[in-house]
C-alpha cells in the first residue's frame, strides 16, 4: 500500500506555522522562518496540516516504499 505524506509548496507557504501546531507527530516545521518542511520519516499522511493551512499550500502525495522491512 502506498504511503502518503504532506508536501508543502514553498511558493504558496506564508510561514504562519499553523501546520506545525496541528501535526500530531511533530513531522513539520518552518525552515528558517521561510517555508514549511516535512520530515518524511515522521509524517503519517493524516492530512491535518493541509486542512488547517490558511494558504492551502500543502498537498498530500503518494510516496514509493523503498523495499519492505516488514513494518508496513
Ligand atoms: S500529514 Fe499529518 S503527520 Fe504529516 S505533516 Fe501533516 S499533520 Fe503531520
Ligand atoms: S500552515 Fe500552510 S502557510 Fe502556514 S506554515 Fe504551514 S504550509 Fe505554510
How would you portray this structure in words?
The protein has helices at residues 18-22, 48-52; strands at residues 3-8, 28-31, 35-38, 58-63. It has 72 residues and is α+β, with helices and mostly antiparallel strands. The protein has one domain (3-60): Alpha-Beta Plaits (2-Layer Sandwich). The strands form two sheets. The chain has a two-stranded antiparallel ribbon with strand order 1-4. Strand 2 (28-31) and strand 3 form a beta hairpin. The termini are close together. Bound molecules: iron/sulfur cluster (SF4) (2 copies). Residues 8, 13-19, 30, 36, 53, 55, 57-58 line the site of one iron/sulfur cluster (SF4).
Amino acid at each position: 500500500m502506498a504511503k502518503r505524506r504532506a508536501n508543502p509548496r514553498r511558493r504558496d507557504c506564508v510561514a504562519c506555522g499553523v501546520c506545525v501546531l496541528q501535526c500530531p507527530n511533530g513531522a513539520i516545521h518552518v525552515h528558517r522562518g521561510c517555508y514549511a518542511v516535512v520530515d518524511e520519516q515522521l509524517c503519517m499522511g493524516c492530512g491535518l496540516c493541509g486542512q488547517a493551512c490558511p494558504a492551502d499550500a500543502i498537498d498530500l502525495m503518494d510516496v514509493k516504499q523503498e523495499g519492505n522491512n516488514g513494518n508496513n
